[in-house]
Amino acid sequence: MITVKKEVLMDYGCRVFEAAGVSGDEAAWVTDCLVRANMKGVDSHGIQQVPGYVRGVQAGRTKPGAKMEILKETPAVTIVDGFGGFGYSIARQAMQLTIKKAKKLGIAFTGIHRLGHIGRVGRWPEMALEQDMIGIASQPGGVFVAPWGGIERKLPINPISVAIPTGQGSPFVMDFSLGPIAGGRLSILVERGMKVPPGWLIDDEGNPTDDPSYGARKGAQLPLGQAGLGYKGYALSMFLSVLTGPLIAAYNLERHRPVGVFLGVLDIAAFTPIDEFKKSMDDMVADIKSSKLAKGFKEILIPGEPEYNTEQRRIKSGIPLDDAIWKRLMDTAEKVGVDTSMYEVEKGGVVLHPSYTLKDRY
Amino acid sequence: MITVKKEVLMDYGCRVFEAAGVSGDEAAWVTDCLVRANMKGVDSHGIQQVPGYVRGVQAGRTKPGAKMEILKETPAVTIVDGFGGFGYSIARQAMQLTIKKAKKLGIAFTGIHRLGHIGRVGRWPEMALEQDMIGIASQPGGVFVAPWGGIERKLPINPISVAIPTGQGSPFVMDFSLGPIAGGRLSILVERGMKVPPGWLIDDEGNPTDDPSYGARKGAQLPLGQAGLGYKGYALSMFLSVLTGPLIAAYNLERHRPVGVFLGVLDIAAFTPIDEFKKSMDDMVADIKSSKLAKGFKEILIPGEPEYNTEQRRIKSGIPLDDAIWKRLMDTAEKVGVDTSMYEVEKGGVVLHPSYTLKDRY
After folding, report:
1. At B59, is the secondary structure helix, strand, or coil?
2. Which helix (H) or strand (E) holds A110?
């Protein structure tokens, strides 16, 4: 395990993407999204994605510089096609437009068809957060969840993120699947020989199981809700599937599933003076945090606060990376002709050789 | 137990409210909301509310004919005050305005401050449904739910309803609290000596309990989510609390809680041709219903379908009412001077005396 400062990873990503033919601005944006995921502890969606993305560009699957195409719009609603571009760039363009529209009217929703990988879903609502707005994003994810009363995988796990500003401390950033567990995390549990808690998964006959080899390719995940309450998670899941599917004309009739991305922005100032809003938010957060603790908890955190705390720590300590991942990153750099001698591993940390300077992107 | 046809209950409500000084239109609307709740099997929010509402009017607490006051607006956002009026009438006015705005722009959100009782939350999204639009409504409800990691009641149970049109059969109408169980249902379980399922409630020390005397006035309810997943229900609950509180300037700083009503309308046609939308919805519903069944289930239903089926049955069979409730309704009628001899109980059903004709409101 080594640690790398975020500035060094930003420098790395920018150089590698640019060498692969991506423009400076787009290279910086995609890298920023990845490094931000690492900073928040969501390493699966972080810098380790670079080699795959570079292969995508080289194979022509991902077209740098692609612009979204507007298919339909009102002053508050937009339907766009993002075919062929970096998902990160298309989602940025779509969210920028949604924010612009919400600034005029108070709310705006956007649906995106045909989009490349957009990484950590929380990134998109955070764009609204930076403007003192509420941001919402959802995409379907894998079809892993059984309906209430059924035992087959029929509903997507529906990753959803909502970001809400606060006055002090961590903002509210919820970012999770409505279904129990992401497919990637199931694979990790299988690799490590671990089990899942009761009530998450069923096998092909509908019997409860704690075996993480079920829930993605066989068996199914159960909808959100404790004993007898799964009908609530089931309904919420269908609602999100409507937003990312039929509503935005992004429902695939052959595969019986939604395939789009849904973005929403609420401009708080159109509803309530922002200072009053933040005062109320801070009071709500303080009141929730004042609750007596459950056994095994040291503190009550608001959604997004664990990631916020990780980010504060990693600003100081850097981002931990497996040696194998670092090696893969260096291999990719060499393949696109970036001189890797500028990055030196020293005492478990990556430092920049004194004869190089960082690209100033962060 | 007796049964009453909906037309007779409509007639009853209209006559009684009008005799109490409510205009014909408002009397018909409030009665319609109540009888519709009965028709869908939500009898707690049905005709049995009439005596209380009449007392409210007579005591001057509820002012018939009140109009909502607009406090702030954009073409898509409205904040209104509903002080003093029938909640049903204020919510109707607010939803009508929200629908009108959504027809122009595709989406509209409205926040309501200070509102009387609005009964079954599902009624408001159904107004959008009638116009081939998606409707959303949420209000806070009792503060019964513990945060993730805490054991005190800090979050409201957040009743939320979303109504979405389909092409065939029952529309999608979800209508439930995000928290495990409404306060009224807890009281009924206590009266009947029944228990609640595991994972719903904790006592004052945070220990699990199946005793329904906890969860409203002592102990707490746990947020939505099976083992280890309550952080998801907790986050969703906070999000809804922001919509019904800080966002719409309806957060009470003394009581640390949201106190408003949030309404939303999405005009499907602004996103997608309505026929295409309904075709996708019907496919999604058919695919979900095609799942192999879990043990103990005869059929997979979509949210709102149980209530839809009850309504189809009650159109034929009438609405069952306790004798005691019928007696209370007749007492109230007599107090406001409505001649109750027109309603006759015969063979367990209420019929109208041949010398009277129904008020034509339904």
Report:
1. coil
2. strand A107-113
pLDDT in tens, A226-284: 999 999 999 999 999 999 999 999 999 999 999 999 999 999 999 999 999 999 999 99
C-alpha span between A250 and B48 (Å, rounded): 44
Residue A183 has a CB neighbour count (10 Å cut-off) of 16
Helix, coil or strand: residue B352: strand
User: In this predicted structure, what is the pLDDT of residue B361?
Assistant: 59
Positions in chain A whose pLDDT score sits under 50 = none
Of B229, B268, B294, the CB nearest to A150: B294
What is the pLDDT, as a whole number, of residue A241? 98
Q: Do B321 and B1 meet the contact criterion of CB atoms below 8 Å apart?
A: yes
CA distances from A64 to A57, A84, B14, B236 (A): 7, 9, 66, 36
**Distance from the Cα of residue A90 to its chain's centroid:** 14
Contact by Cβ (8 Å): B201, B210? yes
CB count, 10 Å around CB of B114? 17
Residue with tokens 């595991």, as numbered in its chain: B198
Report d(CA A313, CA A319) in Å as an integer.
9
| pTM of the complete model | 0.96
Q: What is the pLDDT of residues A212-232, one digit of tens each?
A: 999 999 999 999 999 999 999
Distance of CA B209 to the CA centre of its chain: 28
Determine the residue type at A334. E
Name every residue whose Cβ is closer than 8 Å to that of residue B253 and which is 6 or more positions away in sequence.
A279, A280, A283
Confidence of residue B360 (pLDDT cuts 50, 70, 90): low
Q: Is B210 exposed, middle or buried (0-12, 13-18, 19+ CB in 10 A)?
A: middle
Do the beta carbons of residue A120 and residue A33 sit within 8 Å? yes
Residue of A nearest to B202 (CA): A294
Average pLDDT, integer, range B130-134? 97
Q: How far apart are CA B259 and CA B323, in angstroms?
A: 36
Instruction: Identify the CA nearest to A51 among candidates A357, A268, A334.
Output: A334
Q: What residue type is assigned to position A140 of the chain?
A: P
Which of A239, A245, A266 lies at the smallest CB-CB distance from B174? Answer: A239
Amino acid at A244: T
Considering only CB atoms, which chain A residues are within 8 Å of B72?
A: 271
Q: Is any Cβ of chain B less than 8 angstroms from the Cβ of A241?
A: yes
Tokens 């955070």 belong to which residue?
A126
Which strand (E) or helix (H) includes residue B109? strand B107-113
Helix (H, G, I), strand (E, B) or coil at A129: helix
**What is the rounded CA–CA span in Å between residue A249 and residue A79?**
9
Contacts with B, A 25-54, CB within 8 Å: none
A254 shares contact with chain B (CB less than 8 Å): no
A194 CA to chain B: closest CA distance, Å?
15
Q: Which residues partner with A264 through β-bridges?
A: A109, A136
Q: Do A302 and A288 contact (CB within 8 A), yes or no?
A: yes
Residue B57 · residue B22 · CB < 8 Å = yes
Residue A83 amino acid letter: F
Compare CB distances from B147 to A206, A231, A300 and report the shortest one's residue. Answer: A300
Q: Which domains, from first to last, does chain A contain?
A: 2-62+316-352 (1.10.1530.10), 69-179+223-275 (3.30.1370.60)
**Residues B25, B9: Cα–Cα separation, whole Å:** 16
Quick one: DSSP state of residue A210? -
Task: Report the Cα–Cα distance between both ends of chain B, in Å, rounded.
Answer: 24
H-helix segments, B106-182: 123-129
Angle at B260 between CA B88 and CA B124, to 5 degrees: 35
A197 in contact with chain B, both atoms CB, cutoff 8 A = yes
